[in-house]
User: Fold these one by one.
Assistant:
Number 1:
Amino acid sequence: MDTISGNVTATCVGYSDFPAHVDEVVCMKGMIHRIREMTGFAFVIIRTAREVVQCVYSPDFSDYRMVDKVVEGCAVKLTGKIVKDATREGRYEMQIHDIEILSTPAEPMPIVINKKQLDNIPLDLDLNLRPVTLRSPKERAVFKIQEGIARGFRDYLFSQNFTEIHTPKINAQGAEGGANIFKLDYFGKQVFLAQSPQFYKQMLVPVYERVFEVGPVFRAEHHDTSRHLNEYISMDFEMGFIDSFYDIMNMETGALKYIMQFLKDSYAPEIALLGAVLPEIKEIPVVKFMDAKEIITKKFKKKITDYRDFEPEEEQILGKWAKKEFDSDFLFVTHYPSEKRPFYAMDDPADPKYTLSFDLLFRGIEITTGGQRIHDYHEQVAKMRARGMNPDDFESYLMAHKYGMPPHGGLGLGLERITMHLLGFKNVRYASMFPRDINRVTP
Ligand code: AMO
């Protein structure tokens, strides 16, 4: 271990403790983020867990040796005096007395991460170098905010008496249907990676009434789009004893309001660094699927070719409409056609061509799907049969229905999708720490 004087003992603090230690000698640990050499002294910028701290390394306060060994990427323990930054109001810096080098990098950085240039590097290069590029304050801020979204979701649901669950990701059946399912050889037997925790969260409603999970799910998306990942984090909840699927929408509105306030209160530095504009959520407007289609044709003169779902462009139109009409970044669209919803969705008794389900659009992109589920055993079996499914293949799922379950519903909210639109990214990969897509499984 290299040290300049080695004998200094002082309390170790973080940057947030600096104001309480002005004019005192303390110690701080961190990574050397940047060195700015000046005439006769240097600014050593230290990266700690959440801060970038300016330190002055000068012969005036230290013996100023080892300058050539003090390089970007070193892990260091600094000892020095805390002073007010003379040029930046409200900021503090350390006058370094002593540098202890805890580790030295084997090679110089492959890319500049401590200047603005990182904003302009191609996405692929950024992702290839993620273990390093994540060290840049802006990139790591994205995932602090993502942490805040997931924490807010959890905290809010705990406050509403939900139980957190962890369900298996290796399953005997897919829950969402469709072709986007990963098949896996499981000791000679074919199994599937979970497309969602749908079956398990429903099974747990008669157990805990209200459950939620934040966990990875897998979708074998064969195309390369800016909004699909092959593995993403799904924030799911399911609640029993609902009066209607509007209870689910109200719960989501409450969660989103809480999350935005939580981000404002606890993630202000990251929000400022990224210039993120948090949405003001009052009430979220609601429109029925077919009415939305009519708005798209009548008001925006777009010819509709598919009456079963929205094209991405139609979602964008609806996003603009919600902003203009209701000053809302969010829009609930309800009553999706039964044909396009999974077999567990409850059909609308008033018109069974449609379901008691919804999507939530955020700034013109779907971030949530949810709705009421079929709770009656015979009804669920009949819908499976009508779709050519064999109920025997779903025996354990159907046990929930067979032995009684309350009216219930829930939703799935894509963590990367909400992060992407909150931060205004054009590609969902910017909002995934280590994305998995059709071309990428590393790093
Ligand atoms: P759905 O399949 O619509 O619904 O997914 C729910 C939400 O997950 C996100 N999402 C994705 N994010 C990134 N990459 C993908 N490939 C991807 N696919 C989906 C979106 C989407 O709104 N079981 C139901 C939910 C429920 O009804 O509870 C489900 O999984 O944000």
Number 2:
Amino acid sequence: MTKGPMMRVLMVAPPGAGKGTQGAVIATHFGIPHIATGDLLRDHVARRTPLGQAVQAHLDQGELVPDEIVLDMVREALADAAATGGGYVLDGVPRTMAQARATYQIGLELGMTADVALHLKADDRELERRLLARAALEGRSDDTEETIRRRLRVYHELTHPIVAWYGDRGIFVTVDAMRPADQVGREILAALEVMRSFVHRSPDQPRRAVDLSGLGAAFGELPAPTP
Ligand code: AP5
């Protein structure tokens, strides 16, 4: 864990891009809670709570759970995070424009709006490959070929458009998530460390969106062979 001002990060990325994997890396590095709505929802399903029973079909079919259910969870989790220092990495929210606005509103009310919206960029074929590989190991109910396609469709239709909104708000960082997970993690932490000093030094200055997805070579990617 590094010392310094706490971080508030939310991740906007397609299924299989590495939100869970990298969310854990970010949480450990900055000593902040990793709040993953998918994990919270799956936990309810496993415990057969009334909420779990209400959302199970949505998860199994790869459809979004109603906003009010997810936003209640976010509010509660952020209030808990406020009590433990105020930092967080939010994995899986927002997924729609309405959720983006509501999450911002909750952050404003609690005095803890996000410092960085982190986008993990990867192409659909690689995402499908990863999720099918995971299906063989873990058997998640939504890791079937058909449901993976639906999840990707939902991402492209409803979630990806909010990327532009964060770009306009100047808190947006894009990382190329096609490389091995440890390289992606190193690049994310380097970018967040830069953002951390920048964000907390001049909170009132307008911030710029940062696109690091072309910086593979600087983070250990081998250059393409010359023909
Ligand atoms: P959620 O649990 O958030 O699932 P998801 O978005 O489909 O994402 P995944 O968990 O499948 O992938 P990930 O990006 O976390 O990648 P991971 O690190 O696991 O949501 C599930 C469902 O809950 C939704 O469909 C919806 O129904 C509901 N829901 C959740 N939030 C909601 C919201 N806000 N609103 C409404 N409904 C909501 O990695 C995937 C695999 O790839 C792993 O096996 C991993 O080891 C591997 N991997 C990771 N990185 C790499 C790499 N760089 N190279 C190779 N392999 C890698």
